[in-house]
Amino acid sequence: MQKLVEVIAKSLVDYPDEVRVKEVVDGDSIVFELSVAQSDMGKIIGKQGKTVKALRTVVNAAAVKDNKKISVEII
């Protein structure tokens, strides 16, 4: 799942080498902390947050088969 977030994020930004995804497990939920270059922040968030919302939707859809609660946070 972490690789999925990383691949999607790298395809959206200008500086893919600066994309970092950290997995934090908290009980039965998993949080992916996504960090990108400051200049790429707008590309990850998108207009009115639509891009990050779509990213979260894809990750949640992939997590359904594993019965896990997953969230993506941008740092």
Automatic annotation (TrEMBL):
One of its GO terms (biological process) is regulation of cell shape. It is found in: Cytoplasm. Belongs to the KhpA RNA-binding protein family. One of its GO terms (molecular function) is RNA binding. PROSITE patterns: KH_TYPE_1. It comes from Desulfuribacillus stibiiarsenatis. Its main location: cytoplasm. Coiled coil: none annotated. GO terms for cellular component: cytoplasm. Forms a complex with KhpB. InterPro entries: KH_dom-like_a/b (IPR015946), KH_sf_prok-type (IPR009019), KhpA (IPR020627). A probable RNA chaperone. Forms a complex with KhpB which binds to cellular RNA and controls its expression. Plays a role in peptidoglycan (PG) homeostasis and cell length regulation. Pfam families: KH_KhpA-B (PF13083). Keywords: Cell shape, Cell wall biogenesis/degradation, Chaperone, Cytoplasm, RNA-binding. This is RNA-binding protein KhpA. The gene is khpA.
